[in-house]
Each structure stands twice: as C-alpha cells, then as structure tokens.
Design a protein that fits this description.
456 residues; Protein-Tyrosine Phosphatase, Chain A; six-stranded mixed β-sheet; 38% helix
Length: 456
C-alpha cells in the first residue's frame, strides 16, 4: 500500500459518515492490542479552545522532560497535523505503514466498518504506543460521551467553554450539549474546568459530583490577570486561589497567541500541568519552565496575522457564535487602539453551522463583506449566505453601511480584497477552519490529504 492508495482508502472511509458510539472504536482497538492502554493521557472536550489548550499542555509536559503525543482535529492543510510527538508531525510513511496494518486487521472482521475518525483515532493511539510516549494529550472530535476518543482512561480531564455547536448530533440546548461534553469525566479523575455559562456549568459539576471527580475551576480556584497585549501575543500573570485569596502566582507569562480567551486557555493548561505534577502547592518552582514552554506555542489559524500581496490579513477559524463574539471583541480592540481604521471580512461557513450566530457580532464592525466558500461539499454557497443576510431582519439591519461582494472561492476572495484594500484596513478571513485551510494553501502551504479536513 503506497501513500496514494492510503489517501484513497482513508478518503473512502468518510463515506461511512459520523457515528457516535464506543462499540466500534473499542472493538477496533481491541484487535490492535489496545494501544491506548500503554501511555498516560489527558482528555479534552469543549466547544471552543480545546485545541489551543491541548497544544499548550503538550508543550508544558514536553518541557518537563516527557515524550508527549498530541491528537487534535481537524487539520488545516496536512493530515499529519493531527498526530504529533514532541511537536513533530507523524511522517507520511508512518501513516502509510499504520494504515496498512490497521486495514489488514479490519479486513479480518467483515462486520467491522470503522468511520474515518474511528480509524484515525486508532492510528494515532497505535503511533503513540509504537513510539513509547509517556503522555498523550487527546482532543475529542465531536462531543465527548460517544466520541471515539472516549475509550481512554485518562489521568485528568479538561472541559473548555461549552457553546451551541453540532446541534444535529449533541442536542438543541446548552444543557444537552454540556451533558455530552461531560461524558469524558471519569470516576475519581480530576477535572480542570474553564469558565462556563451557568447552565453548562451546573450540568458539568453535577456529573463530576456523581463520579466523585475533584474539580478545579477557572475563576474560583485559579485565574489570570492580563498584563498586556501586542500584535505578537499576550502577557499575563497566573494565580492559584485559596479561600478567595491569591495563594501563589507566576508572573510575566507570554504566549504568542492573540485574544483574551487564549489567556484563559493557557491558564487552564498551566493548572492541568500543575495537577499532573502534583505541584499545585508550589507552582513558582516551575515558573521558568512554564514561561519558556508557553512562549514556544504554535497554533496556526487562530487570530493569526499574515500578509497577502502586501495586504494585512488576519486568519481565524471562528465557526460558532461564541467564537465570533471573541473575534469581534478582538477586532474592536484593534479599531479602538487605532491599529486599523476599517475591516474587510471574507466569510464562508459550513451548511450545518448557525451562520446567523457567527455573522451577527461581526457585521456591525464590517465595512466590506466578501462572501465565499471553502472547497467542500459541506460549504454553504455564497448565494445561500447572501439569501440569509437579506432575509433575516437582525442581520440585514447592519447591511446599509456594508459593501457586499461575493467570490466563488478563497483565492478569488483574497484577490478581490487585495484589489480594494486601502491603507489602514485589515482583511479578516473567518467562519470555518476549512476556509482558513484553503487560505493557508493559497498563502503557500503544501496540501497533503487536504480533502480529509471535512471529516469531523
């Protein structure tokens, strides 16, 4: 099986769709010898911020001297982005070898039909096992309770902010979605919890209590103080709290990621790291290691400044209402500070997303809107988004001051934006990580297994 055949096989598995449940992944991993039992792990669920939190925690564990696997999804331009050890992506020949090995085992089980994500989860865990990692930081693909990754028995779980997303699979209310995310909590296993909406928080804490899982919560047990922000990133102090008062602090932490939400994500990663090292009582002893590790964080496509033919460009994968609110707050800060005097928005989204919720916080600060589509079947068409804009009273109220344009694809949209760009304007491309992936390809990234981004 060569790499091209591997691509074709993995792509074919996407036709099995998405199946929530643990019977398939448990059976698949069992015939592979249960590789997920050969390393310690941290399991992360949430609607926003879980990828950023995962990559920062993996960096912290690596800085402490461990060999660390990282499993995230989706990828932007290369399938190999999903599976890393100590920051290095899995090699193409390793993907091919593992795919061949796992495929042969599946063939011996005629009634076993793994989905793409189930297969790739098994591939990741096998890669970590083969390379004897000490830890694996594992991000859920969708939800938590019935996600294929929920076969692991983690040493710690993390739930990042829960919002309204994937309603067709997880439920129509915040409580229902939080219940699915809380499905990763294991009996007597510590949980580190990001700040949550009250309805989601109540569901998660109730689940943790029922399983006797100790909870450390952002804002109650630890928090951050923002010290400053610049084009290159954020600076903050981290505090542990006891009895409502600061017990210990690590000052002057810098992360090369933008947005206030990334400060909270970094704080959650630090708290999880201290919990795993049993160093919560004396975090300052690790301050140098923590500063150095977080300063090296790389997580493309999330409030990332780039340039296209001399035009300032900001890429962000905001794909739900909560993420769009964070993006809008960041852009308002740029406009208020005078860094930029106007915003051109290149926007596209998947059909299964609540496009109204994503656009609503962004339209009031947008002077020019270029509607486009990522190169996937799931993408909403520019005409479909335009129809929504014109028919929805809440969205159309923002349109009289907004110039509306369409472009069939991301490259065309970038060229339109560049041709109209004026000094002091910022072009922002957002609405989907798949749209960001298309933009990165235009900007020079080499696509590998690009078509598989669509799955999960």
């Amino acid at each position: 099986m060569n790499y091209t055949e591997c691509i074709e096989y993995l792509y074919g598995l996407t036709h099995h769709g998405i199946k929530l449940g643990l019977e398939n992944p448990r059976r698949l991993l069992s015939i592979l010898g249960n590789p997920e039992r050969r390393f310690r792990s941290v399991h992360i669920a949430g609607t926003n911020g879980k990828g950023s939190t995962a990559v920062m925690l993996a960096g912290l564990l690596q800085a402490a001297g461990w060999k660390v696997g990282l499993f995230t999804s989706p990828h932007l331009i290369r399938f190999t982005e999903r599976i890393r050890i100590n920051g290095a992506e899995i090699k193409e020949e390793e993907v091919t070898d593992l795919t061949s090995r796992i495929r042969e085992q599946v063939r011996r089980e005629p009634d076993l039909r793994p989905t793409f994500f189930e297969f790739v989860t098994a591939l990741a865990f096998s890669h970590f096992s083969d390379n004897s990692v000490d830890w694996a930081v594992v991000e859920t693909g969708l939800g938590g309770r019935f996600d294929a990754t929920n076969v692991i028995n983690p040493d710690l779980t993390i739930i990042t902010p829960v919002g309204m997303d994937h309603r067709e699979f997880l439920g129509d209310t915040l409580e229902e979605i939080a219940f699915e995310k809380a499905g990763i909590i294991k009996e007597s296993t510590p949980l580190v919890l990001s700040s949550q909406e009250p309805a989601a928080r109540e569901v998660i804490l109730r689940r943790a209590e029922s399983l006797s899982s100790p909870v450390t919560e952002y804002g109650r047990d630890f928090r951050a103080t923002l010290k400053g922000s610049a084009r290159g990133g954020m600076e903050f102090d981290f505090h542990t709290i006891s009895g409502g008062s600061v017990k210990a602090s690590i000052t002057g932490i810098e992360i090369p990621l933008l947005g206030r939400h990334q400060v909270e994500n970094a704080s959650v990663a630090i708290e999880a790291f201290l919990e795993l090292l049993k160093e919560k009582e004396s975090p300052t002893s690790l301050s140098g290691m923590i500063r150095d590790a977080l300063l090296r964080t790389s997580w493309p496509g999330r409030l990332e400044f780039r340039s296209f033919l001399g035009m300032p460009l900001l890429l962000d994968g905001a794909h739900n209402g909560e993420a769009a609110v964070s993006l809008a707050a960041f852009l308002k800060g740029l406009l208020h500070s005078g860094d930029f005097r106007g915003i051109t928005l290149i926007f596209g989204a998947m059909k299964d997303k609540n496009i109204k919720d994503i656009l609503a916080p962004l339209l009031p600060i947008t002077e020019r809107l270029i509607i486009t589509a990522a190169g996937y079947e799931r993408s909403e068409t520019p005409s479909g988004i335009m129809d929504l804009l014109l028919s929805d009273p809440g969205l159309s109220a923002s349109l009289p001051r907004t110039e509306l344009l369409t472009a069939p694809g991301v490259e065309e949209a970038l060229n339109v934006a560049q041709s109209l760009s004026r000094d002091g304007e910022l072009t922002v491309l957002t609405g989907s990580l798949y749209l960001v992936g298309d933009a990165m390809e235009v900007l020079g990234g080499t696509p590998v297994l690009r078509e598989l981004s669509e799955s999960r």
